[in-house]
Write a structure and sequence with these properties.
single chain, two-stranded antiparallel ribbon, 10 helices, Outer membrane efflux proteins (OEP), 2 domains, alpha+beta, five-stranded antiparallel β-sheet
């Protein structure tokens, strides 16, 4: 019988150390898939891909999000331990000194002293007959899934913001080049107008108007240079570098991915982290309600103790010093001031709140995807029109240059034509990058989906 008891205790220890590890140790998935390099490679920009890999490896926000996942994995493991038996060893070695004042009824105990050697192995286990502890673990697991979705949301947000800044930086480079050409052209125009004024062919008002416009162009150039520095600092912060040039593609080599869908299936919102979080929160709240309801039921704990107990060290390992006891400890609250009932109602209110939040998130997500789709369609049309308009303006400018050759247009006319052409190029450049930014917004609104591998339907 004693050998059987020792065997049971060994099995409990083995169960506590190995089974718990088997159930809770899960290796982390590689998070590089959250960056979705397959989608960004459609822009045919090797610098962008390189930067995204650096972002994945170095960004502190991503490291913090990953640590939060690991923290919650340990919380799940800690709670799972409540489902398992507890085995402990709490030895006691001491000496008692009793005085003659000790009394049992009419009998006095004379003063004495004695040693006490207690070496027990203790075990206890709450029988989860109602499944309460299992539900608690499931609730923690749902919370872990929520944290993982928040981590995914961090990746999507950071990657989208980074890529937006990257393409805005390319746009700013292009606009600055055009702006410098505009300033150079406007300076030539101002010089020509001043020459005309000297011979009486232009008024002071015309000179002042051209000077005013040149000042405006210089102001715009200053704003663009400021924006460029802000974007460079922002990108360096993303990549955790303090200085150095940010490699980027030239505007003229930028490609807009083709076949970006203009219609999407309604279930695309299920890919969004906030939708998944609201759904998981609803499921977690449901589990918490069930746990709170089961807290009203009695709990039953079985316990046991085996070891050695002696008052002399020489007797410690004798058969007479062997210690063993076991029992069942049922527990039920008869009166607790209504605390558990109030807690159950509190959990039900949280469940109702989670349900309404789930409904609201569904509506808001559909609205956001619709807005992103509409924005993309609009920016795409605007870019097509701006490109068409720029081609027309270039044709006009070429005609003006041809007329200058045959003497029907002046040098000033050519300068004004060049200025109009440069302004048209600015509009096209802005619309092209705005179209790319709208694609990034659509990517973010769909939860980081690979837009080129989605089946489109006019549900949205």
């Amino acid at each position: 019988m004693k050998k059987l008891t020792l065997l049971i205790f060994i099995m409990l220890i083995f169960f506590n150390t190995t089974y718990a590890k088997q159930k809770t140790d899960n290796s982390n998935k590689d998070k590089i898939e959250y960056v979705n390099l397959n989608f960004w490679e459609n822009f045919k920009d090797e610098y962008l891909t390189e930067h995204l890999l650096n972002l994945y490896e170095k960004n502190y926000d991503l490291k913090i999000a990953e640590l939060k996942v690991k923290e919650n994995e340990k919380l799940v493991k800690m709670n799972f331990a409540n489902e398992l038996p507890f085995v402990g060893f709490e030895p006691y070695i001491g000496r008692d000194f009793k005085s003659s004042l000790q009394k049992f009824g009419s009998m006095y105990i004379p003063s004495y002293s004695q040693s006490n050697f207690l070496l027990p192995i203790q075990a206890s286990y709450e029988i989860d007959i109602w499944g309460k502890n299992r539900l608690k673990t499931k609730s923690y697991q749902k919370n872990l899934e929520i944290i993982k979705q928040k981590e995914k949301a961090t990746y999507i947000l950071l990657v989208s913001d980074f890529v937006s800044d990257y393409f805005n930086l390319i746009k700013t480079d292009k606009l600055l080049d055009i702006q410098k050409n505009l300033i150079e052209t406007q300076s030539e125009i101002l010089s020509k107008i001043k020459d005309k004024k000297e011979i009486g062919l232009a008024t002071v008002d015309e000179v002042l108007t051209e000077e005013k416009y040149l000042s405006l162009l210089n102001e715009e150039k200053n704003s663009l240079e400021n924006k460029k520095e802000i974007l460079l600092n922002s990108i360096r912060a993303y990549l955790t570098v303090n200085e150095g040039e940010i490699k980027r593609k030239n505007y003229n080599n930028i490609l807009i991915p083709e076949n970006i869908p203009e219609k999407l299936k309604a279930d695309i919102i299920e890919n969004r982290p906030d939708y998944m979080i609201s759904e998981l929160s609803l499921k977690k709240s449901g589990l918490d309600v069930r746990v709170a309801r089961k807290e009203l039921l009695p709990s039953i704990v079985i316990f046991g103790e085996i070891g050695l107990n002696a008052y002399k060290f020489n007797d410690l390992f004798k058969s007479s010093s062997e210690l063993f006891n076991a029992g069942i400890f049922p527990s039920f609250d008869i009166f607790a001031g209504g605390k558990k009932v109030a807690f159950l109602k509190y959990r039900k209110y949280l469940y109702d709140e989670a349900f309404n939040n789930y409904q609201k998130t569904t509506v808001d997500d559909i609205k956001e995807v619709n807005n992103a789709l509409f924005e993309f369609r609009t920016q795409k049309k605007n870019f097509i029109e701006a490109k068409k308009r720029n081609n027309i303006q270039n044709e006009i400018f070429n005609l003006i240059k041809d007329r200058e050759i045959i003497g029907t247009s002046s040098k000033l006319d050519v300068l004004y034509g060049r200025e109009a052409s440069l302004l048209s190029q600015k509009e096209e450049a802005s619309n092209k990058i705005n179209c790319i930014i709208s694609i990034i917004s659509l990517y973010k609104s769909t939860g980081g989906a690979d837009l080129l591998n989605l089946g489109g339907e006019d549900n949205l």
